[in-house]
Amino acid sequence: MRDGLLRLDSRNIAGEARPSFIGGALPINFVGSPDTVVKQIKESRDQTSAGVIDLMFQTPSSRDASDLIRMLELFGREVLPGIRDI
Predict the structure, then answer these.
(1) Which residue has the higher pLDDT, 85 or 63?
(2) Does the global pTM surpass 0.85?
(3) C-alpha 63 chain-centroid distance
């Protein structure tokens, strides 16, 4: 299925054809190191002009809440300062 999605050329965003993927991921998925996530959020903002983003944090490999808490703390410490100005 992933290969099929990667073959998509563009998606319609506000009536304009735009690239479906930014760095191999849909511009609505932010995955990676804090620096990578900051870059992805900024690129998504540039592509969509969204003024607000809703975030959902997932720990697909674990049911341990400590993993989620660690991600939230890392996001607050490393990502939020990088996107505060956009």
Answers:
(1) 85
(2) no
(3) 22
